[in-house]
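haha ok so turns out i had the wrong file open the whole time. this is the CORRECT one, sorry everyone. sequence first:
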Amino acid sequence: MCARGASGWLGRMTIELPAPVILTRDQEIDLAKRIEAGLFARHLLDLAPCPANVVPLRPRPPRGELEAVAADGDEAWRDFFLANLRLVMFIAMRWSRRYRLDVEDVFQEGCLGLATAIQRWDHARGTKFCTLAWAQVTCWVRRACVERGGACEAPSWWMDTQNDLRRRHGELQGALGRETVTSELATTVGRTSAWVERTLAWEPPRSVSELPDVEAEPEPETDASARMRCSIGLAQMPDLERRVVIGHFGLSGRAYSYESMAASLGCSVRQIKAAEVRGLVRLRGLVTDMAEQELAA
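then structure:
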């Protein structure tokens, strides 16, 4: 299918939803067939007329009949689209609450996902439309929430952690039947109360330049051999990765922010974060190899 037919009125749509309409499987197939017929009729209308010296294999229907079929296809698209707007609103409300965004903005992105689902749905395959629509709308809505929430270059793992903590918070409240305290939630997730409070209070940044440095929890004291393995591993790492890991975690006595390291090293913040991830993975592998060698000896 094609999005043509929706472009004329989609931009004027408001957040006020029409009366709920639940389409049966047969009704969805009928609307899809009408949309396809309308698209084909519009294709014939857009074709140039045949030259006078060419005899077509099949006579073209009258122009008035084609225009009627095309108009019926546009109407079918409109009915199909409006009947699924409550699905879009349901998904938009869930994701807007997670990322604390305006539900109207998220809803508009979901409408684009719904239009994409209508384009891609093949009624001949025997699957219901909602199976494809749910995935398409969720994909568009989540991408919009991540981008507008400032996570396009932010640590997505941290935002996922925050969303998971909020979900578990709601489940715990439902199980207890009352408001929970931070210590109860911290015990459930196996974290400290300070970590839970900081995670729930953290706001997604609007740009990567406003991304706060999330302080790591204090690690228990390690023995001298572990510190020695870490020092040897750092010496074997590439220069950029080593300087980023040492600077950000304060291994030289002072911790530096991503922005300050990016300015001093002549890199972007995104490159600094990528180097940190690579460096930590490399350092973990080097330390593990040295520990295994010591045990084998």
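The two ends are 67 Å apart (CA to CA).
again sry for the mixup
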